[in-house]
Fold this protein.
Amino acid sequence: MSASPSGPGTSRTRSWWGWGYADAHPDDAACVALGALLPGTLARPLPVPRVADLSVGRPGVTPPTALAHLVTSDPDVRAAHAMGRAYRDIVRALRGRPGRIPDLVARPTHDREVADLLDWAGGRGVAVIPFGGGSSVVGGVEYRGDTHRAVLSLDLTSMDRVLEVDTVSRSARIQSGALGPVLEAQLRPHGLTLRHFPQSFEFSTLGGWLATRAGGHYATGRTHIDDFVQSLSVVTPAGTSTSWRLPASGAGPSPDRLFLGSEGALGIITEAWMRLQERPRHRASASVAFADFQQALEAVRAIAQSDLSPANCRLLDPGEALLSGASHDGSAVLVLGFESAASPVDGRLASAVDLALAHGGHGGSRGRGGRGGHDGTPAADGDAPADTAVSAWRSAFLRMPYLRDGLARMGAVVETFETAATWDRVPALIDAVRTEVGSAATKATGHPATVNCRLTHVYPDGVAPYFTVAVAGRPGDEVRIWDDIKAAASEVLHRYRATITHHHAVGRDHRPGYDLQRPAPFALALRAAKDALDPHRILNPGVLID
């Protein structure tokens, strides 16, 4: 059984339990082929779970008549809102244990309805879990615990309009429930784009990006959603906060910064004025291979510390390059892409390739990007079909979450996590993750583990490595194994003073690492803000702060 947790914007059916669209998941034969890549996986895949097989109880609360038209207790809809899309969530659904299923799902259409729902929930002790596209991979959209009498999933995807476009200031006022494709489709007639394309672009919303401080696809420059915010409107139980629309301000701490990354714990982001850009017209891309991963790291640092600002600067280690089809000879591969709305980018690409070659790279295969196929997918970096490695990587990038779900059906444990650290610590950090997290995965399962790494975002002072761990699990014990791997990874990150997350948010899964990372006085201030804005403690309990 499938259901769409975010109806507007697509006629295809979303999977209630797995990533993305139900019709894009690997079939049983493809799952078996995937399982053959990891020794020790199941002989046949676990069946696709059905909502009909779950124990979906009666709602523990009834909404008032004035709000009843906004709320549903349909079992399919409730199950689709029970969790995000982390591996931990996928395997729980496969095992028929998705966790606490919300009692009700509400879909407000404007700010007043959001405020009314919060007023009702506060008075009845109902937990409110904000929900956009449901793509959280850190336990950010589920309820854990038993301190509230009922759980309301607040789905904002009916608030999905671009309300105003200011072409003079190149900005737009956008409702927070707009999914990526819905948002971009409304900007396209104006020749403008938000230019924020996370891997979850099709299945995540503007509000979700803001609430989690999401990182986009682009490797340098403005890539975090923070960089695009002019002002926010946030509905809290204590009232509505609307900041002034300004290009910049030095007037004290920014009110927007309180809510960016707040993960729905302090209020519900309902609208935002966002800075826009012209749609790119010039694109070019290249790939460079490296026999030595350390030399590849030095090449990336040189490019990051230049003023070239590539849109894409992804370094794939040999395992990642092999998995994506970008390389088959044990080489690491650097994928470069440039784009511009104003002028050709071939010269900047050539300079970046020269830097890579000067640091031990070879090949330098190049492609030219024209209009490309970009309507809001990670192809925006200008990857050209002529470059086989770049095309292979892009295809694998878009398919990877579906393949992960296929491996989960074969009993594999697949964990992905990302971080960021300064350049001086990165080589030792990557080595420690490969060694220690790989050993922890093998110890937990008795099977050999694969640990791959790619660099997703690069800065002059540091870089964001993204790791993938894959190992055959033990039937029925996958969640505990995943927890062990997550704990081992978090310990290594903390020891190297690398952030617990660069762009996937804190949620509930990263809380232990976040509690160690944040300064104690800041935690005190955050608790005070929670007390002031959410006195009944109903907003997304368990994320960021208790």
